[in-house]
């Protein structure tokens, strides 16, 4: 079985990220896996509307806009996924009565965009200096007709797949997933296989994100130290 | 108090952490900002450099919103007029609060606040006004309480506003400076900076009745050009991460005289000027 872009079944697309591109946001990050690219800007902790304020924790708000068209129900679902995942990982109790707003803009959609959005949100939150319990990395697997399992499916592969599974893990992948999304018809052994592959992939994505963040800090620590 | 001298060492790569990294499980350490504990282990909650002072372990992230400490001099913008208080945007995690009881009433004499003062709060500060204040205390939820109980604080006029990274404005004894070119600069520790036409202290005191006036003094074209030049100098210092102090602004102003004020916004000119400013600052120290 050859994939349209001639990758192996277990091979992910090239990862690329840029931190701190947006000058007016507290934190921003662009995350791309192959041709799927997502830009995330984070504001916070900032002042919150009285309607949303929580007396003992920060209020998390997520806004996702697709690459083309107006946000639809699927995008609202992805917003709620990102919000519930990060509500647990952000140390909200440190900033009561504030708002953390996560704005996600899908720049290009070539499959596995939910995972890219979660990864971009992690990097943007880290860039903004918002305290997190752990960094969150997400990965996607698709089960093709015939049972073959491929990781990081393109839009074409996902459209023709029997089922698509997205998993998000924290730093300790053995502790269980932070988010699971499975769509389509699948058997439990297919699910388990996807789980294992995505856990390994998430660890690699985490390592990539960590080295990107550490590289930026090392560069900027020298710059600030010198002035 | 012993300060860890390792922070001066250029090689910081050994001590850079990301959220979720374990720092230590040694029970002898106390955890500070940027960390959280789970069981016996201290983990980092932000991406940054570990700092250790005696037993206190903390992680300092590069980017942080201005936190605010008591005694800080800040510049803020009024966002809302509420009952007996104003809410002020001070570039922090929450809007600051300026209570009606914390401002000076016009006329310079001390008088009791009346009901009519409460009903006419917009005659003092209204939405969009810029105020120069000091942090008096915190509210229970961490919001800053400001006061302008001194003749030098109050409403800002006759100038222009520049926002910079708060980390670039060091705390010092005075935050209100008069530059040799005849321009007054207010350096808010929260990163908000006001650059205005110079008004002498005597004139300010003589105008005690009009401290809340919204009317600017007449400003000549030369004064406007100086103000614009200083504003662009502050912008370029901010762009190239140079600390913004009276000295660095004066150096930048002097170095910039060879260019038109608008040329200072071009990256190549800005980089060249920032380089000469850092050179002069290093020479001076």
TrEMBL record, chain A:
Top-rank taxon: Eukaryota
Transmembrane spans: none
Family annotation (InterPro entries): ExoRNase_PH_dom1, ExoRNase_PH_dom2, ExoRNase_PH_dom2_sf, PNPase/RNase_PH_dom_sf, Ribosomal_Su5_D2-typ_SF, RNase_PH
Keyword list, A-Z: Exosome, Nucleus, rRNA processing
Keyword Cytoplasm: no
Keyword Protein biosynthesis annotated: no
One GO BP: U4 snRNA 3'-end processing
Ranges where the Exoribonuclease phosphorolytic domain occurs: 11-131, 134-172
Gene3D superfamilies: GHMP Kinase, N-terminal domain
GO cellular component, one term: nucleolus
GO MF term set: RNA binding
Family: Belongs to the RNase PH family.
Protein name: Exosome non-catalytic core subunit rrp46
Species the sequence originates in: Coemansia biformis
From TrEMBL, chain B:
InterPro entries xrefs: Exosome_cplx_N_dom (IPR025721), Exosome_RNA_bind1/RRP40/RRP4 (IPR026699), KH_dom_type_1 (IPR004088), KH_dom_type_1_sf (IPR036612), NA-bd_OB-fold (IPR012340), S1_domain (IPR003029), S1_RRP4 (IPR048565)
GO CC annotations on file: cytoplasmic exosome (RNase complex); nuclear exosome (RNase complex)
UniProt record, GO biological process: CUT catabolic process; exonucleolytic trimming to generate mature 3'-end of 5.8S rRNA from tricistronic rRNA transcript (SSU-rRNA, 5.8S rRNA, LSU-rRNA); nuclear mRNA surveillance; nuclear polyadenylation-dependent rRNA catabolic process; poly(A)-dependent snoRNA 3'-end processing; TRAMP-dependent tRNA surveillance pathway; U4 snRNA 3'-end processing
Keywords for the protein's UniProt record, in alphabetical order: Exosome, Nucleus, RNA-binding, rRNA processing
Molecular function in Gene Ontology: RNA binding
Main location: nucleus
Subcellular location: Nucleus
CDD domains in alphabetical order: KH-I_Rrp4_eukar, S1_Rrp4
Segments forming domain S1 motif: 69-149
UniProt similarity note: Belongs to the RRP4 family.
Name of protein: Exosome complex component rrp4
Biological source species: Coemansia biformis
